[in-house]
Amino acid sequence: MIAKCPVCDRTFTKFQHFKRHQRAQNAGEDSNDGRGLGEREGPRDEVANLMVLDDLAASAPLPLSETTWSRLTNQAGNESQHWLSGPEMQSDLDLGAGQRGVTTLPGLQTFGTFDPQSLLAGLAAHIPSSLDISDREPSLDTTQLKRDRIASLWPARPCRVPPMMSTLWRDIASSTDRNLFSQAPSYKANFLAEIPQTGHLPALLEKLRPLTRFISSSRCTCLTLGPFSEHTTSSLDGTFYASGSLQQEKSEELCRACSSYFELLSLGLEQYKRKFNPVFPVIHLPTFCLDDTPFTLLCVICLLGLTYVNTQEAATLGSKAFSFVLERVYSDIVANSFAEITPEQRMCMFATSGLMSALFILNGGTSCPDQMRLLYINTLTAARQHGLFNTGANTKLSQLFKDAPEEDGQWIAWSRIESTKRTILLLILVDAWFSDHFSTGPIVCTGNINAFLPCNAMLFQATTASEWTRLMKPSSETAHPSFSLFYGEEELPDLQEPVEHLSMNVVLISALLRIQGSHRTYLSICDNETLSRNHYFPWNCFALEEKARKDANLLLRIMEVYGTPMDKISSNCLVTWNWMGIMLTTDCCLLEEAAGRNGVEAAKNAIPKVRIWSQTPAARRACLHAAQAFRATSRRRTQDGGSFSASKHLFSAAIVLALYLLVSPLKENDNNSGCVKRFELLDEVDWSSLGTRGLSADVDQLSSSETGNAAADFIRLGGPVSIRNERCLGGLRSAQRVLLDFASLLDDMKKWRIGDYSRLLYVLCESLGDLCVVDEPFVRGVGGTVR
User: Fold this and answer.
1) In 3-state terms, what secondary structure has residue 349?
2) Pairing of strands 482-484, 726-727
3) What is the span of the domain harbouring residue 64?
């Protein structure tokens, strides 16, 4: 077989030689080399070659006129005839053409006139169409290759999840789930509202099996039993069904250890419904289904209820299960805070973490403190970055659930929105407690808090849509109050009667967070000389900063708006408000140091500083706030419920009043005179008439004349005091009596006595004389207050 090349007219006797020659023509390969250019050079070199061709094409001159072209052609032809003439040159070109395929280029096949147009046309004919220079496509494609290569060299960026607050309310209202925390699209039996006192629930038993197995550990003998799926029918959404006889069969499958633990967990679930949820109602019980509840949330609920079961078995179970549940809650927060999950799942995750924090608080704050601190930081940081504490209170929430077509749909949408609001408020309460417990600044941006308050508790407890509609109609206009604490632009809404405890508590705690933030920001950076010059009370240091200067006005504004509701709602609200006043007038760290927090030597060094503070109007106002906190707690009612921070605030109030009496002796003439008028610290105080006395450097505080207002005169001038109409002589004995009175109040708080503060007060009462070395008159019991 003889093959002839149509380009160079060469003939080949073997077909494989002809094909190799063709490949050489197309790829620019030496015909005597068995490898092509594409094989010899890598893809990177090929791309580089294409880029060179692209640059050459881009730098080609613009088309010229025919006259110019003819002139250049003639000149080029003359030069080619001069240089390319003679038989030797002809043979060399023939040889070169045979080796390198030069004759394939038009204009060099013959030794005539050099034709540049023909040369460019020949080049274009042998370049692939995708890289055609004449169309400029090679430039575009090669540029795209370069851009793709640059993009591939950048480090991978994690998937960015935008803050959820911008669409949160609309997403929650339009969800198909009946409850925010149990993703059930249709109605099911409400196990939490109707949980039996005895017996096992199949779905609950199945969900809690991993927890009971972990707690029982080596004592469990039911690990080798067959799975429950042999006896239980489950639907695709994870709902379990079982008959009564089958339920008994499942109960018999449990070993003794797992059975006892499961009974305790069932009891904890019941106690959560009866004791904890009424105080901090986050979960909407009428629509809450255990079947579709996440495992971690269910475990936290059961352990919260167990804190109300005062038995050794319950305490043992709670301590064993705490680390197991904490690990899973923390893993969920780390993995899903910014993952692509639904808003309902993310809010459920935040609620689980908030309830886990509440469990830590109720346990006294001693279980796994380092791990809990990490959970607190990650949870509040993620919630802040998602914008949950600036909720866009201008949003019309009523319109969102009213768009639902049916009455039942409106009720369900409203309940999801309400649970979302309460979850956000729960996180604010958690931040207040943890920032105080760990002595850090709050994570919430306290000057930008803007949130919805919960609706009336009766609406949240309505068991049917018709009952909810009947209760909703009278309050539809103000069903979703909101508040904001922007500096200088505080908005405190009028709360409908009856005012819910959670609403009032959140407003107070949010304001307290703002003051705590000022404490950590401005007071902690002051040196000892500055603190001494300002007599160791915060508001004088706050006066140096414009924003912190407005905290005192916020304190008075809250009492002006909510004075009457606070007295009616709960004693805890008044305790919190008075604690805010103490924080503005007292360096609490100094008083704790004087009470022995850092040892005897530190206490001895702190006592002279406390004496300087005690001679100021701010100290006397702090004593008034401390005594009023005692008065509010002594009038505590059963329905007042509990508070995360009430016991700590009451303990600190005891330290303030006791140390004030300890270091403030009466003058000798006042002590011997029985006719001196005493100020009763536990009398009711008209705070509006006091104004900012003790909170600012008012001119009238320098006056020595009396005003007729006993509380105002005490703050300005000082003088002897009494508690329960018993004269306080001051000194050690008066301080000890105050500590004992406060300790007895803490004993009465029972479940909400978070931390062993009452025991600390008893011990401090015994050792106060040894801890605080003061002058001899104090030890003999002579003392009081000074002007």
Assistant:
1) helix
2) unpaired
3) 3-150
Mark which of 150, 185, 213 sits at the end of a domain: 150
329 and 274: one domain?
A: yes
**Which residue type does 86 have?**
G
Among the residue ranges 199-213, 286-300, 400-414, the one predicted with the least confidence is 199-213
- pLDDT per position as a tens digit, 172-224: 999 888 899 987 655 555 456 555 444 446 667 777 878 877 776 656 666 44
Same domain, yes or no: 136 and 265: no
Query: In 3D, which of 119, 180, 156 has the Cα closest to residue 424?
Result: 180
Q: Residue 483's beta-bridge partner residues?
A: 451
Record the pTM: 0.74
Residue 267 in this model has a pLDDT that exceeds 70: yes
Average pLDDT rounded to a whole number, residues 368-381: 95
The residue from 449, 469, 484 where one domain ends is 484
Q: What is the DSSP string of 511-552?
A: HHHHHHHHIIIIITT--HHHHHHTTT-HHHHHTTSTTGGGHH
Q: Name which residue leads in pLDDT, 779 or 433.
A: 433
Q: Taking CA 118 as the corner, what is the angle to CA 117 and CA 119, rounded to the nearest 5 degrees?
A: 90
pLDDT tens-digit readout, 222-264: 644 444 333 333 322 333 333 333 333 344 466 666 777 888 8
Q: State how many domains the chain has.
A: 3
Do residues 671 and 772 both lie within one domain? yes
Cα atoms found within 13 Å of the Cα of residue 700, Cβ hemisphere only: 12
496: enclosing H helix or E strand? none
Contact (CB, 8 A) for 585 and 625: yes
CA–CA gap between residue 53 and residue 137 (Å, rounded): 12
Question: At residue 37, what is the residue type?
Answer: L
| Minimum mean pLDDT range among 56-65, 110-119, 397-406, 752-761 | 56-65
Identity at 466, one-letter amino acid code: S
Dist. CA 93–CA 87, nearest whole Å: 10
571 and 441 in a common domain: no
Is the domain of 455 the same as that of 582?
Answer: no
Report d(CA 459, CA 499) in Å as an integer. Answer: 12
DSSP class per residue in 571-592? HHHHHHHHHHHHHHH--HHHHH
